[in-house]
Amino acid sequence: MSATDHHRAYRGDFVETPSPGKLDIFEDYRLVVNQQGFIISFKRATTDTRKDVTWDSETVIPRGSFVLPTFCDIHLHAPQYLYQGNGLDLPLMQWLDTYALKAEEQLDSDKTLARRVYRKLGQRLVKNGTGAVLLFGTIGEETNMILAEEMRDVGIRAFVGKLSMDISSQPTYMEASTQESLASAKSFISRCRALDNNRGLVVPVLTPRFVPTCSNELLEGLGKLSKEESVQVQSHLAEAHDEIDWVRRERGMEDIDIFDKYNLLTPRTVQAHCTFLSPTDLSRIHERGTSIAHCPLSNVYFSAEPFRLREAIDRGVKVGLGTDIAGGYSADIMNAMRQAVVVSRMRQGRETMEQAKSAAVKKNLAIDWKESLYLATRGGSISLGLNSGVFKAGAPFDAQMIGICDPETSGGIGALELFGYSKMNEEMIEKWWCNGDDRNRKSVWVQGKSVWGERGNV
Questions:
Q1: Would the pLDDT of 3 be above 50?
Q2: What is the rounded distance in angstroms from the CA atom of residue 386 to the CA atom of residue 133?
Q3: The predicted structure's pLDDT at residue 361
Q4: What are 306-348's pLDDT values in tens digits?
Q5: Residue 137 needs a FRET pair 20 to 30 A away by CA distance; which of 174, 293, 407, 451 works?
Q6: CATH second-level architecture of 71-383?
Q7: How far is 24 from 40, CA to CA, in rounded Å?
Q8: Whole-prediction pTM value?
Q9: Which residues pair with 79 in a beta bridge?
């Protein structure tokens, strides 16, 4: 190791979900991180790893705690954090006009307020264990630069989307023309990349809000821009009945066909919700390599259909979880995990009742807690095109330390009740999954840097 290298080691228990339903527990392992924040070794602590790699400091994870990859929130409307927990009483299209667009317009006109909201949002996300987030912003380029700056400063891995909207919005909240919208999107890509200085932590994303607010010319231009600049795309797809009816009435097509026509259904794309997609549509999504952001809470409020999560997973579709602030009222991915399981079990309950009435082939539509943990970590990482979500050489050290048991008293931490603790196992982790909260989160690291918690870069 050269004099300028500063490798750090972390020794303790590690947990990951590398594939749906698979939970790996690594008891007493040592993970070594280089100065750039990437994992260079992950082996049993009893192995003589100093033959291969050295380190100049080591953090020992306390007994009763484990290290888990950070969560990925792949669908969140940053300006709507302004009114999180309010305004969930209307159908989607009315809700947008009454609440969402007004909040976004307010932040575009008040840069001081925008900075306050975005700073608080970033702080809340890392406290919740979110290490990567895919953000919808506003139409204002300067306001989106504020969003990018605040996410950079808090240290989170942020994919920042400047909205593109040239039609069918409130008269005071839309871009002046298609060409101005495209020019602003291209300008934001350049400015955001310069802000990040090629670190890959703050990334620009093209963001046509959804088909009703984008002309065909704008969608076509964004598809070309995505290919030319190799930039990711995010939008909403087949979310709510009133939105689908609008698209059919005004465009005479399904929105999935429109996105596909303009090259916005590619491996660079994340589409949110997708509750009205058929199994055939899901197969098409898989063929295109497009990812889906599953937002179970906001789907309950704004969609008349639950997302076909089991079918998507079984077809190999890339799926992660989103909080969908403020269509969902919680910025905590732990709640999204729990809600994803609950909704899937409701689907299974209805399926079971239907099966009892007929001779239909039995099928399982439910997911379990381990599958939801995969969606929150590795699944979200894959959806964002990241190499995180697992502990392996070459991956960034994006991790959170979770405390389950107090090593001094052997009692549970926070809301967890433990009646005896011997070692980390699935039962302990499931208890945390069901009842844990931010009192159990002791540290958060993004690409090797401490961004929240008690234990930093020791």
A1: no
A2: 12
A3: 65
A4: 999 999 999 999 999 999 999 999 999 999 999 999 999 999 9
A5: 451
A6: Alpha-Beta Barrel (3.20)
A7: 19
A8: 0.96
A9: none
Tell me whether domains 8-68+388-453 and 71-383 share a fold. Answer: no
Asked if 246 contacts 283 with a C-beta cutoff of 8 angstroms, the reply is no
Which strand (E) or helix (H) includes residue 319?
strand 318-321
Helix or strand (DSSP H, E) at 402: strand 399-403
Find out whether 366 and 345 touch, Cβ atoms under 8 Å.
yes
Q: In 10 A of CB 230, how many CB atoms?
A: 8
Contact in structure between 192 and 148 (CB atoms under 8 Å)? yes
Phi and psi at residue 169, in whole multiples of 5°?
A: -120, -175
Dist CA 195 CA 192 (whole Å): 5
Long-range contacts of 220-228 (CB under 8 A, 24+ apart): 220/262, 221/178, 221/181, 221/182, 222/164, 222/182, 222/185, 222/262, 222/264, 223/262, 223/263, 223/264, 224/263, 225/182, 225/185, 225/186, 225/189, 226/263, 226/264, 226/266, 226/268, 227/263
Please enumerate in sequence order all residues whose Cβ is within 8 A of that of 249, keeping only pairs 6 or more positions apart, or say none.
none
Domain boundaries, the chain: 8-68+388-453, 71-383
Name the region of 110 (left: φ>0; alpha: ψ -120 to 50; beta: rest).
beta
Q: Where does 8-68+388-453 sit in CATH, by number?
A: 2.30.40.10
